[in-house]
Structure formats: structure tokens, C-alpha cells
């Protein structure tokens, strides 16, 4: 609800705000599992633009849900060839 005003939050589609990366690509920029601390403290994004990301501070169960969702958007891992 909060994120989708700027970010694409599904497996397809463009972000409503062009400068906001789609959630499905966040694993390319960040270790999604490592975002727990930032989500607990409030992510601060230092960029310029028409929209600034608000500071959201999440509860532990919300953090687990967000991380699980972000991981669900990652492409499936292909097994390594032997």
C-alpha cells in the first residue's frame, strides 16, 4: 500500500515513479536478507528528485513479511552444473 505509489511491487510492470526501482530488481542492488536492520531503523534514501522516499520504521513481523515478499520476486535459482 505504501510502496506501490512509487515502486512496481509485482513481477511485471514499470514503477509509477520512474526513479523508484521495481521491487523485483532490489536483489540486484542489495542483499535482501540484509535489509532487516535498515527496515527496523527506517530506510533513508539520499537522492534528489520530485519525490522523496518517506522514512518507514517497521515492526519485526512486518520486516519478515517484506523480506519474504522481496525474495519471492527474485528469479528462481538455477542449479550449478557439475
Attribute tags:
82 residues; mainly alpha; 3 helices
Quick overview:
With about 80 residues, this protein is mainly α. The protein has three helices and no strands. The model has no long low-confidence stretch (mean pLDDT about 85).
What does this structure look like?
With 82 residues, this protein is an all-alpha fold. It has one domain (3-72). The chain is built from three helices and no strands. The chain starts with 25 loop residues before the first helix and ends in a 10-residue tail after the last helix. The model has no long low-confidence stretch (mean pLDDT 85).
Give the amount of beta strand, in percent. Answer: under 5%
Ranges with pLDDT <50 over ≥5 residues?
A: none
Query: What string gives the helices and strands in order?
Result: HHH
The radius of gyration over CA amounts to 14 Å
Secondary structure tally, helices: 3
Q: Can you tell me the overall shape?
A: globular
Topology (elements, then pairings):
Layout: H1 26-29, H2 36-41, H3 60-72
Amino acid at each position: 500500500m505504501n510502496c506501490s505509489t512509487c515502486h512496481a511491487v509485482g513481477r511485471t510492470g514499470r514503477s509509477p515513479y520512474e526513479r523508484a526501482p521495481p521491487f523485483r530488481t532490489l536483489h540486484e542492488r542489495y542483499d535482501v536478507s540484509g535489509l532487516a536492520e535498515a527496515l527496523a531503523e527506517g530506510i533513508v534514501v539520499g537522492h534528489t528528485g520530485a519525490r522523496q522516499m518517506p522514512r518507514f520504521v517497521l515492526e519485526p513481523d512486518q520486516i519478515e513479511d517484506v523480506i519474504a515478499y522481496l525474495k519471492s520476486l527474485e528469479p528462481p535459482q538455477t542449479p550449478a552444473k557439475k
